[in-house]
């Protein structure tokens, strides 16, 4: 009954028509109810009745499927009803199938999967909703509930309905062939390809795997030949799946990759046309790959998956394509660089086959390797960095087996004569390890690490030094990479060169500001030094082979390692590392046991060879390292071992100087160093010693101290050890203080007596005018005795200082007058005439060691007595200034910096005198002064004010490479962080000071002669090439420390305080120093470091952003803003000043006019199109600039043409001449002269053409506004009158004189 009523209702509804949503909804509902019936008779009658109104039916259902309301639910219901109609029994499919209706069906599926928002629905839809709301039934009310336009909730999405539509759609395609409807086929492919992306928002409400399976079934179905050409369809599917292939890791991407690599690739095996389509798909993806780092990585992975599923010949073709990509534009080059390592690691047999006759054959991997090496020198910093890191990845992958390593070494050139670590990548790595971009430097160090493993540590020395330099890089990541690379080389190779470079570079990182760097330094030191020594010492076994060398007895280069540990440049860092490891309880007892075993075995081997024990010395560095680790491992050191070697070394000390054997004399300094370390070790373990041996040792040490015959290095060790033993002997702290006070005063008393006796002896016996001594005479013996007395008194004075440092509260009333007598000897002092022993001779000349040592000891006393320091600090400053002994000046610098820490207020006024030592003739004094002052500055005991900063600048161009390196690190790392504005604030003043210029009114001095003499040492005067280059090096270093906004401000300050000052007459340009200042300003304004282009401000940042996958739009916008600011500054400030200054220089015929023109030409190089706008005030200057450009182009063209002519002449001269006659020679001469004239004419023509093009660019714009209409500063003219009426002859004459302006003869 109901079905009978539905049939006429549907037909009447179709014939009656309607355009509101309720009409469509009732029609869809009625049709769905009718199709659900099982009565074939009713359906047949329905088909018959519907056939007559088929067009109207299709139009109505297409409109229903296009309905935009209800979040697409009405449309998807209409689609479901439509596919049900097509699948129903005995349905005339070709009558009811329409491409328009099919497209509407696909559109309804897409819209149903999209989330809808308030502004998605149009006004017509809203009106339809209102109509439907008034006459809707219960079913309508149930289905319509989202007219407010909010997002559809997951609960409102019917996944079963979607699956039903897709499943029935696939069934329809089995008998509805789309070969006649290419647009429908294309739309179907695009829609099904979009479904995985659209369904992501509903992934929680549907079975995503089932959805992917349905999409794959539909796409696989349309690949049937019934739907058209399979190759064409596959191409369309591949194109539509491209967004899925390039997206991030998701099921949709996996679906697309699986469909392409399995379904399409499977069909392509028997179809040549389809195979061609498939082979071109990776190339298509290459051109569609995004530029951002992370999406590009996903694209590379997708390309690789597809290539892996291709056949071998297709893979080879794609590899060739990738190698050609390496020569393309930057986006293709970076893709090629990313693809090559994945291709080599994923495809089979990258190194080909090996033939005994032809070597390696069919090795596409070597071609890729060569392409990757070429990209390591790419002009793009990002590509360079990626190529280096990927090359490191390739080297690591191909180092897996012996055959691959051999081929790889051959490919990289590490064979034959270049086997000593030199290959085609050696020069490349030298450049890349110091690349201007951090990413490239980091990748280069990674490559070095991989190559070190490949070559077994056999690397070029220059690369090792480059890695060592990288340990001081400003960036933490670079320093970590350098430590890793050097440590890998040291881990593999124990060669002396590698060991030395590692120890001189890595341990010093314990002083790095970053905690992570300190921890990394401790870890590698523990692994590569302490563990290696432990293994070597614990692996020793008795060996009776007397012919065995001691180096072979200790493997892994342990002797070289120990020797370098006690190097003066390494030992401070070793002490710091051992202290840090000890505090963290990471030092193991086996280290101390191994060191004792090494010393014992060395002594045993020496004795087994029946050699004198007096000539034996322990392996260098063993005692030093034992003394450092024993602080935290006192129980691991045996007292018998220490006692035995103390007696041995003490015996050697007694015999030192008595024997005539050369070996004993050579070993005396070694024994002294060993005794110092041994005493340090005894002090460390003294709390573990038995009481009686400790007391005996203390008595022995005191006796040795009181003899005053120790080496100066031993005195401190003896004093420290004696104090430690007193702590062991005493029961309480008061008792230990009493013991220390007792022996200290005893030693001081004896030392003062020795000193006083020597002074009296020297004063009574003046041998200043003694005749030359005959060898063997009594006087010679007497002078030898005097020398011993001098040595004794020097040791006594040094011992006084050591005791006072150990016990500052000791009585010095008898000592100070004696030391005062020594340091003031030769000077009359009436106040002390009857109170002190007077020296009638100048001890500075008579006994220089005593004089120097007395200053050092007095400094130690002053550190313990503030009142005494206040009296003697002026004397220290005076002696520092006038002393001619480099060693004394060095000690005084140390003393003054110590005073600065203890008495900051008293020493502040003497800082300028200390800074004078930065220009000391002795390199050691200069380096010591620089280091000590730098430490004071970092700890804020001294401030960067006054002349201090300006005097530090000259260390950047010091004669010593070590000082220059320290200065670069100070200004580039420490100062840039601690005082970022210092370079900017002092830049202009530095120009005047470095040129020693006092011609500026702001730098005048009431006493110019005194000032000139005072400051000349800290200036680099002169216009010679060497002086100018040194000053420019300083300027460039300061510019590199400035932020972009400070560079812009510096540019303006130079124009205002130098150029404008010169044009206004405040800077005397007739003075030589004034000319130097002005010329330096021109060079600075023209240098690339001060130019603020977009790349200058944001290139490195952009590279780092690209590496991290970030967005560089902000950096680009910042660069653009800076560029606009520069242009504005040039227009408003620079150009008017240049115009006025040019007129002044021309009026004085100054040689600086040429420098001004060169500077202006460089500044305007990047602003050709704005020349007219910038030079509106001086058309003549504009023409002269164009003329300068013409001359430059002419010279360049003439040079290139002459080179070509020279090549042609050489080729002709190489050809055999039929008749070598003189006439032929003359003809050749005439030809060459004619050729040179032709070349010159051609060059002039090229230059004229270039100049005309510039003129056209300059004069092609609109009329320029007058200068008065521009917002520019008005400058006072240096001479009256207008310049517009100048004769052209003067201009030409000025231009003719220009080539001589670069000469410095007149200066």
TrEMBL record:
Residues 117-152, 1002-1025, 1197-1231, 1257-1307 are annotated as: Disordered. It comes from the Eukaryota. Residues 1157-1184 form a coiled coil. It is found in: Nucleus. Gene3D superfamilies: Leucine-rich Repeat Variant. Keywords: Cell cycle, Cell division, Coiled coil, DNA condensation, Mitosis, Nucleus. GO terms for biological process: cell division; meiotic chromosome condensation; mitotic chromosome condensation. Its main location: nucleus. InterPro entries: ARM-like, ARM-type_fold, CND1/NCAPD3, Cnd1_C, NCAPD3. Residues 1278-1288 have a biased composition (Low complexity). Residues 888-1064 form the Condensin complex subunit 1 C-terminal domain. Pfam families: Cnd1 (PF12717). One of its GO terms (molecular function) is histone binding. GO terms for cellular component: condensed chromosome, centromeric region; condensin complex; nucleus. Component of the condensin-2 complex. PANTHER family: CONDENSIN, CONDENSIN-2 COMPLEX SUBUNIT D3. This is Condensin-2 complex subunit.
């Amino acid at each position: 009954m109901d079905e009978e009523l539905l049939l006429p209702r549907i037909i009447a509804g179709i014939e009656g028509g309607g355009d509101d949503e309720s009409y469509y909804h009732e029609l869809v509902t009625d049709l769905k109810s009718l199709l659900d019936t099982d009565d074939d008779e009713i359906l047949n009658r329905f088909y018959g009745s519907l056939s007559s109104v088929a067009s109207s039916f299709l139009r109505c259902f297409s409109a229903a499927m296009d309905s935009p309301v209800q979040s697409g639910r009405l449309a998807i219901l209409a689609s479901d009803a439509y596919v049900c109609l097509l699948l129903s029994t005995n349905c005339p499919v070709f009558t009811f199938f329409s491409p328009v209706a099919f497209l509407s069906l696909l559109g309804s599926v897409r819209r149903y999967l999209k989330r809808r928002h308030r502004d998605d629905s149009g006004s017509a839809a809203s009106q339809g909703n209102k109509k439907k709301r008034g006459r809707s039934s219960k079913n309508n009310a149930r289905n319509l509930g989202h007219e407010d336009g909010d997002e559809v909730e997951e609960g409102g999405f019917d996944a079963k309905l979607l699956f039903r539509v897709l499943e029935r759609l696939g069934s329809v395609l089995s008998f509805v062939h789309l070969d006649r409807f290419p647009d429908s086929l294309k739309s179907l492919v695009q829609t099904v390809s979009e479904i995985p992306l659209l369904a992501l928002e509903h992934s929680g409400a549907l079975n995503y795997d089932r959805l992917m399976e349905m999409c794959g079934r539909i796409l696989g179905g349309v690949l049937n030949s019934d739907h058209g050409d399979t190759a064409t369809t596959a191409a369309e599917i591949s194109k539509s799946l491209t967004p899925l292939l390039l997206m991030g890791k998701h099921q949709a991407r996996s679906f697309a990759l699986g469909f392409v690599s399995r379904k399409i690739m499977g069909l392509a095996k028997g179809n040549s046309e389809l195979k061609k389509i498939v082979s071109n798909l990776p190339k298509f993806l290459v051109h569609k790959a995004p530029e951002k780092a992370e999406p590009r990585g996903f694209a590379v992975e997708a390309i690789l998956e597809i290539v892996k599923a291709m056949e071998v010949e297709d893979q080879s073709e794609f590899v060739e394509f990738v190698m050609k990509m390496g020569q393309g534009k930057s986006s293709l080059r970076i893709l090629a660089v990313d693809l090559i390592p994945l291709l080599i690691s994923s495809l089979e047999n990258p190194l080909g086959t090996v033939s005994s006759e032809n070597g390696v054959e069919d090795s596409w991997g070597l071609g890729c390797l060569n392409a990757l090496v070429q990209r390591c020198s790419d002009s793009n910093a990002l590509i360079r960095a990626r190529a280096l890191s990927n090359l490191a990845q390739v080297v690591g992958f191909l180092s897996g087996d012996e055959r691959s390593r051999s081929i790889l070494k051959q490919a990289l050139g590490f064979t034959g004569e270049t086997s000593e670590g030199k290959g085609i990548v050696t020069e490349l790595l030298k450049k890349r390890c110091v690349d201007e971009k951090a990413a490239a430097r980091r990748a280069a160090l990674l490559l070095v690490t991989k190559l070190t493993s490949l070559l077994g540590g056999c690397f070029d020395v220059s690369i090792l030094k480059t890695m060592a330099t990288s340990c001081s890089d400003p960036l933490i990541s670079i320093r970590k990479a350098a430590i890793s690379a050097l440590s890998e080389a040291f881990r593999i190779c124990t060669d002396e060169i590698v060991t030395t470079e590692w120890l001189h570079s890595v341990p010093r990182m314990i002083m790095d500001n970053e905690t992570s760097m300190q921890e990394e330094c401790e870890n590698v030191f523990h692994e590569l030094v302490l563990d290696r020594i432990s293994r070597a010492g614990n692996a020793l076994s008795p060996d009776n082979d007397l012919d065995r060398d001691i180096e072979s007895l200790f493997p892994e280069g342990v002797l070289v390692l120990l020797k370098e540990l006690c190097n003066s440049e390494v030992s401070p860092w070793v002490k710091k590392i051992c202290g840090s490891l000890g505090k963290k309880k990471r030092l193991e007892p086996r280290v101390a046991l191994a060191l004792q075993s090494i010393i014992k075995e060395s002594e045993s081997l020496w004795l087994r060879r029946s050699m004198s024990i007096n000539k034996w010395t322990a392996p260098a560095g063993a005692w030093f390292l034992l003394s450092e680790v024993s602080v935290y491992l006192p129980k691991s050191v045996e007292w018998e071992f220490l006692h035995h070697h103390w007696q041995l070394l003490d015996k050697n000390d007694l015999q030192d100087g008595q024997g005539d054997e050369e070996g004993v004399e050579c070993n005396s300094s070694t024994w002294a160093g060993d005794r110092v370390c041994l005493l340090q070790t005894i002090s460390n373990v003294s709390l573990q010693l038995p009481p009686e041996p400790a007391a005996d040792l203390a008595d022995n040490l005191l006796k040795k101290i009181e003899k005053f015959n120790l080496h100066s290095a031993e005195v401190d060790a003896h004093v420290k050890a004696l104090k430690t033993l007193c702590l062991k002997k005493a029961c309480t702290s008061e008792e230990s203080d009493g013991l220390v006070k007792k022996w200290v005063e005893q030693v001081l008393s004896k030392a003062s007596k020795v000193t006083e006796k020597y002074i009296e002896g020297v004063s009574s016996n003046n041998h200043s005018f003694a005749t030359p001594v005959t060898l063997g005479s009594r006087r010679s013996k007497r002078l030898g005795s005097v020398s011993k007395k001098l040595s004794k008194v020097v040791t006594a004075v040094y011992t006084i200082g050591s005791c006072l440092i150990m016990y500052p509260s000791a009585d010095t009333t008898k000592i100070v007058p004696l030391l005062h007598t020594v340091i003031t000897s030769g000077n009359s002092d009436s106040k002390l005439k009857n109170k002190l022993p007077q020296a009638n001779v100048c001890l500075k000349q008579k006994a220089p060691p005593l004089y120097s040592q007395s200053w050092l000891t007095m400094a130690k006393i002053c550190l313990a007595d503030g009142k005494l320091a206040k009296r003697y600090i002026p004397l220290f400053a005076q002696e520092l200034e006038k002393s001619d002994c480099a060693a004394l000046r060095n000690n005084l610098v140390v003393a003054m910096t110590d005073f600065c820490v203890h008495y900051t207020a008293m020493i502040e006024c003497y800082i300028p005198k200390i800074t004078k030592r930065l220009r000391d003739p002795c390199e050691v004094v200069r380096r010591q002064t620089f280091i000590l002052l730098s430490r004071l500055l970092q700890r804020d005991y001294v401030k960067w004010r006054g002349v201090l900063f300006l005097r530090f600048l000259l260390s950047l161009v010091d004669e010593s490479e070590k000082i220059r390196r320290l200065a670069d690190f100070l200004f580039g790392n420490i100062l840039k962080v601690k005082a970022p504005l210092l370079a900017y604030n002092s830049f202009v003043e530095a120009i005047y000071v470095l040129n020693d210029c006092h011609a500026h009114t702001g730098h005048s001095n009431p006493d110019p002669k005194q000032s000139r003499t005072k400051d000349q040492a800290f200036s680099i005067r002169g216009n010679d090439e060497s002086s100018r280059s040194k000053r420019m090096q300083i300027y460039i270093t300061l510019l590199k420390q400035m932020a972009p906004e400070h560079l812009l401000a510096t540019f303006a300050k130079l124009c205002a305080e130098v150029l404008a000052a010169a044009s206004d007459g405040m800077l005397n340009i007739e003075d030589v120093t004034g000319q130097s200042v002005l010329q330096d300003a021109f060079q600075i304004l023209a240098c690339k470091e001060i130019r603020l282009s977009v790349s200058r401000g944001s290139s490195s940042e952009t590279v780092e952003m690209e590496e991290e996958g970030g967005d560089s739009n902000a950096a680009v916008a910042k660069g653009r803003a800076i560029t606009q600011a520069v242009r504005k500054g040039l227009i408003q400030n620079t150009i008017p000043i240049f115009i006025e200054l040019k007129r002044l220089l021309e009026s004085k015929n100054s040689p600086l006019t040429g420098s001004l023109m060169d500077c202006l030409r460089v500044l305007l190089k990047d602003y050709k199109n704005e020349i007219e706008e910038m030079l509106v005030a001086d058309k003549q200057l504009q023409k002269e600039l164009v003329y300068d450009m013409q001359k430059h182009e002419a010279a360049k063209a003439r040079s290139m043409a002459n080179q070509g002519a020279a090549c042609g002449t050489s080729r002709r001269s190489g050809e055999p001449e039929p008749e070598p006659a003189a006439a032929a020679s003359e003809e050749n001469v005439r030809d060459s002269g004619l050729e040179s004239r032709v070349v010159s004419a051609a060059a002039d023509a090229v230059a004229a053409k270039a100049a005309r093009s510039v003129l056209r660019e300059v004069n092609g714009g609109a009329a320029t506004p007058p200068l008065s209409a521009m917002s520019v500063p008005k400058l006072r003219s240096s001479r009256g009158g207008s310049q517009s009426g100048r004769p052209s002859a003067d201009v030409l004459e000025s231009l003719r004189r220009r080539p001589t302006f670069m000469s410095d003869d007149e200066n």
